[in-house]
């Protein structure tokens, strides 16, 4: 049974368990857009990247946790500064691709993406492949798939005609991460909504690799721009959890 370390916590898992599953077993949240527990991992969205080092030697790498098997002596950091920068860049790109998606806008608010430097495309697909895998692996139909290559790649029906295997079950729409429209909250003029932006610094932004087991963190939610006392308590709590001394 592989024994690995995630954010300083040693965990023993069954052979074949992925790093994403091991982290979630510990209560450590890792964002995903293309993953579903009932489908084979595709590592398409790359939001689940974690910093991994194998053994005592070698450089750490950014790898997709959803398809990465847990191994002995593997050291994983899920909230390092390098991981945060990679996720923020990816979320910024997804916001520019599908700014109307509530799920992507919520991710931008949760992970501190304050600006979008790319021109909005207003597309309706991020090519995560969830709908294709759902139709093939769960519905056993295979009525849709990818067509074209490169910039012309898209989800399509065979010959753009409804296949007789399609039962109109709606599973592809149910699992799609961008089909849910953004909320009708503050009418943002920019690409980013940030209507649910948390202005309080979360733990791992002040202390590298610190994390808590509350998702969302209630202490961080209570803290705000006018609550400096709660911010201090939140940072002190993060210090204890990270094992660092003040």
Q: How are the strands of the biggest sheet laid out side by side?
A: 2-1-5-3-4
Structure summary, number of beta strands? 7
- Tally the helices: 8
Radius of gyration: 20 Å
What are the secondary-structure elements, in order, as H or E?
EEHEEEHHHEEHHHH
Mean pLDDT: 80
Give the end-to-end Cα distance, rounded to a whole number of Å: 37 Å
Shape: globular
What class, by secondary structure content?
alpha+beta
Low-confidence stretches: 221-246
Report on this model:
Among the domains are: 46 residues, Alpha-Beta Plaits (2-Layer Sandwich); 48 residues, no CATH class. The protein has 8 helices and 7 strands. The C terminus is likely disordered. It is globular. 29% of the residues lie in helices and 11% in strands. Strands 2-1-5-3-4 form a 5-stranded mixed sheet, sandwiched between helices. It has 246 residues and is an alpha+beta fold.
Draw up the topology in text.
Blueprint: E1 3-6, E2 9-12, H1 19-25, E3 49-54, E4 61-64, E5 74-77, H2 81-97, H3 102-110, H4 130-138, E6 145-147, E7 154-156, H5 171-175, H6 203-206, H7 218-222, H8 228-242
Parallel strand pairs: 1-5
Antiparallel strand pairs: 1-2, 3-4, 3-5, 6-7
